[in-house]
Amino acid sequence: MAEERTAHMAGIPRDGIFWRVEGSLLNLSAVRPIAFFTWNAQSFSERWMRRLGLALSALIRPVLYATDRVLATRLLHALLRGISRDRLDLLGEEYFHYTLKPRLNPAAVARLREVAAGGEPIILVSQALDHVLRPLARHLGVEYILANRLEFRDGLATGRLLEPVIRPRGGLARLRPLKADQRLTLEELCRDLALSPETIQRAIVPARREGDMLPTPARIVFFRNPRPVGRLSVRETLAGRHILLIGGTGFIGKVWLAKVLKDLPEIGRIYLLIRPHRSTSAQQRFQALLEDSPVFEPLHQRYGSDIWRYVSERVEVIAGDITQPGLGMDPETRARLQKTLDLVINCSGLTDFNPDLRDALAINVEGTLHVLEFVRGCDRAALLHLSTCYVVGYRDGCIPEVPVPNYTPRGAADFDAERERQALHALVREIEALAESSEVTEQLRRQALERAREAQEVSVSGLETRLRRYRLRWIRNQLVEAGMRRAQQWGWPNTYTFTKSLGESLLFTLGADLPIAVVRPSIVESSLAEPFRGWNEGVNTSAPISYLLGTYFRQLPSNQWKRLDIIPVDLVVRGMILIAAALCRRCHERVYHLATSMRNPCNMRRSIELTGLAHRKFYRAQRELEYRLRALFDPIPVSKERYERLSVPSQKALIQTLQRLSAPLPFVQPPLLRKERDLDRVEKLIELYEPFILHNEHVFEATHIEWLQAALPPEEREAFGYDVTGIDWWEYWINVHIPALRRWSYPLIEGRPLEESSRRASRSWTRSSMGAAAGSSGD
Q1: pTM, 2 dp
Q2: Could you give the CA distance from residue 436 to residue 442 in angstroms, rounded to a whole number?
């Protein structure tokens, strides 16, 4: 306790100027901010209950105020019990910006700034909560405040004020005119608040918002020892190294490439495997990427017109395809690379949750085997294979960083990855053969004829074209369902995690003698700082669900205590660079988790509320009535039973009933049909995301990367350090992540073009190209 007190007092001014806000800058009421907070609680029922409590307290407050102003203040703030610190922080900023800021006394503001220019620190003193006073202090350039502060447990207010309580001024104080100068000496303040000087000094806090208070981690005993690392210098280890990057056109791959080009100019050579398109060569694709993608804007700013020379000295584009044997390279290029490469980084992967089984096998399984075969033919190359934490499937608890060949979430003893791979290919062939059967052909022909009659198309060639199209669609639908059934049979929620895990098992089994590290990031989201603050791309994992929470949809079925494991993309890239250095030094582990659920957890309750608050901040700044209405609808976590009873499923059933009742009224049907389709899409989206927001409570152990971070020299930690404990989730969610999605992802969901991000025309930011990017992490 003494250490905490010493740390708090460090940097707090002992001879500052105390400036009372009430009576000078503002006539700030004690009740109105509390009324604002209660009226803007998360749920509608909370709002009315708290407002009722405020009305009842008004009956006894005058008596309490006259007899004991401190007790009256405590009673008033008890109404905030159960409101989160996150909400109070945002509402405090909102209340200041839209209510208090326009009412500031200009003479007092000018006088305060004049005094502050003299160099003495100023301490704002107010009866308001620190959530309201902090924005005012930042606006005035004041660094310290003395205000009322609530006690919080697990991020929620207990309704109890911490000592000391800053009592309101006397009953007639509001009748006096505002003064331009309200400086107080410490002695005057002690008399005014009836507090001792020591108590006042201990209650002074910085005006900056308090970041996340991380819980003290439990003591965990590991029964395995890390490989000795010693000193791990990224610059020294990767200087002159030759690296093949697969998937460099994807979300993570681009950020990795931009980071290395910016901060590791001593790298030897980076070879980019890029698949040519029909009308675009691999080199042309890379040139367009470098010219158009915002990821490389910092490089353009640094090197200007010299960027092409700088990049060409370090990057060579290789035409190839991971789905082809030998990675689709010509034999001469393949032989040359296998002699010179030090490391292969495989960032490729099909990240669509429920793709065509053929596509998932080709990229996530066969592509992994092709990379393994290529690495085996290299003289000295190691392999960094990017996977996902969610290969764990339907499983609870702490997930260790341990390679498990032939893994299944259900622990099936008879599972063999190679046998399963062959069975999946056999399943694909069986469905393709079934599509040519007479029964399926006849069924598809009837559908084609019916549609042809509706379109008044009678030509034989047109009918056959339609039949071929229907057959391809039938095969795809069957393979999507077959992949899902197979995944869930073994214990995975979807085809994506199933095939990524299958690829991992094959690596662990067939590549046991090779230097391989499997890197499993959790849900990769918007960047904290690199290549710039708030970079995102495409309709990624959280974009659809966070977009939905910004509409009138309110009740999200989720386990509010489940940890939603999100990690910014630039931290993933830093982790990959550290692991790449460890691989080159051969001091690596076989599995690395890049996750936050162990060291800096953020549960679903908080994630949902922060998403709603971020949307509220945006909507509150808009003038349109539609946005103002949306700001009133905060999303809340609910049980699956309540969701089915009161949300989308029940609304869908109601619409279907209305359709039946309004059958005699044709003009009513189209709006109802559109509404039913919208609800059906929402219902399917919720089903798709349930494994991540409702089922299973994962805590991903992430100690292996911390061992590498500890071995990093101090002078390299700013550029390459990896530390998830530094993430302030309030700041990240409200001012980084959701604004990034609003800029880079929501327009794609709404069918709007993206805004240009730089001085160069963004040819690559089209709806079609971004739709492709959402389905694959690069090629």
Answers
A1: 0.91
A2: 10
